[in-house]
Amino acid sequence: MSASLEVRELSVAYGKVEALHRASLRVSDGSIVTVIGPNGAGKTTLLGALMGLLRYSGRADYAGVDLGDVPVEARVARGLCLVPERRELFGELTVEDNLRLGAFQRYRRADPTIGADIAGVYERFPRLRERRGQLAGTLSGGERQMLALGRALMAKPRLLLLDEPSLGLAPRFVREILHIIADLRKTGVSILLVEQNARAALQIADYGYVIEAGEIVLEGEARQLAENPRVIESYLGGGSGA
Amino acid sequence: MTADIVAWLAQDGITNGAIYALLALALLLVFAVTRVIFVPQGEFIAYAALSLALMESGRVPGTVYILLGGGALAAAMEIARAVREHALSRLPRILALYVLLPVVIAAIVWWAVPRKLDQWLQILLVLAMVVPLGPIMYRIAYQPLASASVLVLFIVSMAVHYVLMGLSLVFFGGEGLRSRPFSDAHFKVGMLDVSAQSLWVVFASMVLIGALWLLFERSIYGKALRATAVNRIGARLVGIPANLMGQLSFLLASFIGAVSGILISPITTIYYDTGFIIGLKGFIGAILGGMASYPLAAAGALAVGLLESFSSFWASAYKESIVFTLIIPVLAWLSLRSRHVEEEDE
Ligand SMILES: Nc1ncnc2c1ncn2[C@@H]1O[C@H](COP(=O)(O)OP(=O)(O)OP(=O)(O)O)[C@@H](O)[C@H]1O
Ligand SMILES: [Mg+2]
C-alpha cells in the first residue's frame, strides 16, 4: 500500500530541550495508526510538527511530497487536518459557525457541497444539531469533542491527526467516539491517532507505535502490540480504559 | 446655559462622536485580529480629507505617489518571497494587485482632476487612492512581524505613523484644507438648526456600522475575522490564512478611516497632522469600552464626542486635556481588573 504519510527521523526541540528525537513512522493510505505513550512523551509535539505548528528537523512526506516548511493553511488545503488536544474551538461563535469555518478553504473555492456536509456532520453527531445555535464556549466536554471532530471533517481531510479524542470522556462516549473514528476509515480517510487510552486505541488501529521520552521504542501490528508483555504492563494493566 | 445651546452642543458632540465610534470599531477590529495597536489610523483620515480638498481645487493629490510607491515596495517584497519559495506562478497576481492596480487608479485620477467631476465621483476616487494603502501597509510593515509581541507591534505602529505623517507633510504641505459640504441645506427641528452635513455624518456612520455588523454576522470572511480574533491557533488549524485576515482587517480600517476623513473634512479644517488627534479620540473611545466590546467602544466614542463638545463650551482651552484625562481612571480600573490575566503567549 502506498504511504499517505512517511516520517523519517523527525526531531523537535523547545529551545534547547529536545521533546522528540528522531522519530520515524508511516501511515499507509486508508489505515488507522496509533501512537501511544505516557504523559509528556512527545505525542502532541509530534502532531504539532506534522501540522506545521512547530519547527522540526528531519523529513515528513505527505502523499509523496516533502512537507518542508509548507505553512499550516497549505497543509489543510492538501487534506491534512489536526484535531488538537485543546480543541481550539471558536468559543464565541455558534456551533454551526464553527462547522462552517472548518470548511473555510472550500468556501474560497466556492465548493457547492458544504451545506450537505454540515448535514452529514449533524447526522453523525445528532447532539450538535440540537445545539447548532449555541455558542461553542458553552458546550460540555463531550460535545466539544464532537464539534472539534466535526469541524475537522468539514475540511474534507485525507489524513486526520487526532490528539486524544477520548480525553475526559465517560467510557460510553469513549466507545462511541472511537466507533465513529473507525467508521471514518470507510470514507477513505487515513488516521493518525494519539491516545493515552491504549486499550481502546489498539482495538481500532491497524498499526501502532509506542513513544516514551521523545523516542519511538516499539512498533508493530496493533493486535500484536496489544499482546506484547511490555505494552500490557505499562499501558494495558489494571484493566483501566474502555 | 440655555436649552438651545445644550441642543447645539449635543449635535456637535454626536456628529464627532459618530466619527470617533467608527474609528474605535476599526481600532478594535485591527487589534483583535492582528494585535496591532493601530496608531496610523489617523493618517487615513488626513490623506482622504486632504486628497478630496485638493482634487476639488483642481490639483492632483500626492496620495497617488504614496500609492504607487507603497505598491511598488509591497510588490518587491512579495516577489522576493515568491522567488525564495520557488513560486513564480504568483508573479502575475502580485504585479496585478500591487503595480497594475495602483497605476490604473493613478491614471484615472490624473485624467479626472482637470475635468472637475461630480463630487460623488471624486469621493470614489479618493477612496480608490486611500483604501488600498491599508493592506499595502500591512504587507510592508506588519506581515513580516506577524508573530512579534504586542509591544514590538506597537513600536512599529509608531514608526509607521511618523513615516506617513512625514509623507503627508511632504505631499500635502502644511496648509489646512477643507472640502465642500455634501449639501448646504439646514433644517429647523424645533428651535434647533441642524446642518445636512451633520446628518450625513451620523447617517453614514450608522450605515457603515450596520454593514460591518452584517459582514461579521453573515459572511464567511467576517466570521473568519472573528474566529481569528477569538482563537488564533484554531483559525490556523482550519486553514484561515493569518496574512489574509491581517490584510482584510487593515482594508476595513483604511476604508473606515478614509470614509471618516471624507465625512469630517467639510466640518473641520484638516492639516497634515490632524488625523492623529482624531484617531486618538477614537482610541480613547475603544479604551473606554475596555478594548474588547464593539458596542461599548461605540458608546465610549460617543461619550468622548459629547464630553469634548461640552468642555469646549465651559473650558475650551482645556478641551483636549479633559478628553485625554478620561482614560486615566479607565486604565486604572482595567489594570486592576486584569491583574491576574497574563498576556496571550504566542
Ligand atoms: N511549548 C513548550 N515549551 C517547552 N516545553 C514543552 C512545550 N510543549 C511541550 N513541552 C515539553 O515537551 C515534552 C513533550 O510534550 P507533549 O505535549 O508532546 O507530550 P504528550 O505526549 O502529548 O503528553 P500528554 O499525554 O500529557 O498530552 C514534555 O516534556 C513537555 O513538557
Ligand atoms: Mg499531548
Structure class of chain A: alpha/beta
Q: Classify the helix fraction of chain A into a percent range.
A: 25-40%
- Could you list the spans of chain B in which at least 5 consecutive residues all have pLDDT below 50? 341-346
Q: Biggest β-sheet of chain A: count, sense, barrel?
A: 6 strands, mixed
- The termini of chain B sit apart by 53 Å
Radius of gyration of chain A: 17 Å
Q: Which CATH top level class of chain B fits?
A: Mainly Alpha
Q: Please name the CATH topology of chain B.
A: ABC transporter involved in vitamin B12 uptake, BtuC
Oligomer: heterodimer
Encode the helix/strand succession of chain A as letters: EEEHEEHEHHHHHEHEHEEHH
The share of residues in extended strands of chain B comes to under 5%
Structure write-up:
- The complex is a heterodimer of chains A (242) and B (346).
- Chain A has 242 residues and is α/β, with parallel strands linked by helices.
- In chain A, 38% of the residues lie in helices and 27% in strands.
- In chain A, strands 6-7-8-3-9-10 form a six-stranded mixed sheet, with helices on both faces.
- In chain A, a hairpin with a 2-residue loop joins strand 9 and strand 10.
- Chain B is mostly helical and 346 residues long.
- Chain B is built from 15 helices and two strands.
- The complex binds adenosine-5'-triphosphate and magnesium ion.
- Magnesium ion binds at residues 43-44, 85, 163 of chain A.
